[in-house]
Design a protein that fits this description.
The chain contains four helices and no strands. The chain has about 130 residues and is an all-alpha fold. The protein has one domain.
């Protein structure tokens, strides 16, 4: 686990940049399929999976991005409490880390983080 703050920043940016690369690749693949329709002749299942991947790519990367963000919060919380086994719920970490006096994150941003967390939970666990 990274233990320096910019290591986590880099890890989160890597997930974002991976999304951009996959988005680019899917866009190019869709262009190729459109311009050369017979590229997938006899591969209806593959065509359907490509459409599914294209439709779900943003959700997939929201889940991954929030997972990286949550891991950073957990790492920070464990270091702050000097307890490598400490486990805390993400909702509590957002409020306790983001609401620290003098180092806080605005209430509006914390509410936004909770909203993303709820969407991530819905997509990752298919529950609300």
């Amino acid at each position: 686990m990274p233990n320096r703050r910019f290591d986590w920043h880099t890890r989160i940016k890597d997930v974002e940049n991976e999304y951009k690369a996959v988005r680019f690749a899917l866009d190019r693949l869709n262009e190729e399929i459109t311009s050369t329709p017979d590229i997938l002749v006899g591969s209806d299942a593959t065509r359907a999976h490509i459409r599914g991947a294209d439709a779900n790519i943003e959700g997939t990367y929201v889940v991954r991005l929030f997972a990286a963000f949550e891991a950073a919060l957990r790492s920070y919380d464990r270091a702050r409490h000097r307890d490598p086994n400490r486990e805390e719920r993400a909702s509590i970490l957002i409020d306790s880390t983001g609401g620290r006096r003098g180092q806080g994150i605005s209430a509006k941003d914390r509410v936004g983080a909770h909203e993303v967390r709820l969407v991530r939970n819905y997509w990752a666990h298919e529950t609300d």
